[in-house]
């Protein structure tokens, strides 16, 4: 009786280990796939957190204030963008395809996306104006680095910032 019980315990242990390894593998693959960063629609091409790592605490506070000032406007525009994207998705997956309605919904979604990008551009421009040239160069090189490495594996977008490129 003891060997039957231990045999089932061994099987249960092996199944448990297999399940845990599967879950760990899935989580690890997702983390690796997304480079460990929290994806958000506000960071489609600029990694503000990585860029902030190049600054001292006082400069970080100043830059964070700039971005904080844009946050309410950005939240509203992102909410409108997500709503228009969901609307377009529903129209595209409906039983009846109404091309005119779909085209109008797509135009509305594109308009909302452009408004989000306009707000992000304003924040980036204010950030650039608030930093001295050398710090600005490092800040933006680091912030755009992830985007450059993910989307352009060739040498077209190599940084020309000298020492900042070697970090």
Structural write-up:
The structure is a single chain. With 167 residues, this protein is an all-alpha fold. Helix 3 (57-92) runs antiparallel to helix 4 (99-130). 74% of the residues lie in helices and 0% in strands. It has five helices and no strands.
List keywords for this structure.
single chain; 167 residues; mainly alpha; 0% strand; flat
How are the secondary structure elements laid out?
Layout (H helix, E strand, L loop, with lengths): L1 H32 L14 H5 L4 H36 L6 H32 L2 H19 L16
Q: Please give the share of residues in helix.
A: over 70%
Helix-strand topology string: HHHHH
- pLDDT averaged over residues: 81
Number of strands: 0
Q: Determine the number of helices (DSSP H or I, runs of at least 4 residues).
A: 5
Helix vs. strand class:
mainly alpha
Report how far the terminal alpha carbons are from each other.
64 Å
Largest sheet: none
- β-strand percent reads under 5%
**Rough outline:** flat
List the uncertain runs: 36-43, 151-160, 162-167
Evaluate the radius of gyration: 24 Å
In summary, what is this structure?
The protein is mainly α. It has helices at 2-33, 48-52, 57-92, 99-130, 133-151. Helix 3 packs antiparallel against helix 4 (99-130).
